[in-house]
Target: Amino-acid N-acetyltransferase
Amino acid sequence: MHGVTIRRAKTADVVAIHGLIQPLVRQNILLRKDLVVLYESVQEFRVAETADGELVACGALHVLWLDLGEIRTIVTSDAVRGKGVGHQMLEHLVDDARELGLKRLFCLTFETDFFRRHGFEAVAEQIVDDQVYAEMRRSPDEGVHEFLDLPWVKPNTLGNTRMVKRLDD
Model:
């Protein structure tokens, strides 16, 4: 979409990011993210900004392990939904993943068609070995718990599809 710039998020963007995600939190599509969590993870986010400075989309890349990252919290406002901003956001996050040296990207989503168009494939099996799984269980991050498909996050993930994209070298 013309007139939208994708850039790294700043701390001053956090309140607007929070506002973008709240409708999806209320619909149980995204996990609740308190402001403090967003401030702590602001460096993982990119935002889409209009020429007049309005934030109209966000997305995050969270590193899970040596070769594995997770695409999180891709949200577009109603004003730009269906205009390619989400696709641009995902492309930027994939480029960030490659820059970090990641080889695979994971997402847990209801938007399977969107992610499939970008090379993600649905998976049912555990995609890390048992030793990595055991290490990752130590994470306090709810998103990592979702990735691991731990029982206590099931109410938040029912109906979501686990998808993975392998990145080309």
User: Anything to note?
Assistant: Helices lie at 14-26, 35-40, 85-100, 112-116, 130-136, 142-148, 154-157. The radius of gyration is 15 Å. Residues 4-166 form a domain with the Aminopeptidase fold (CATH 3.40.630.30).
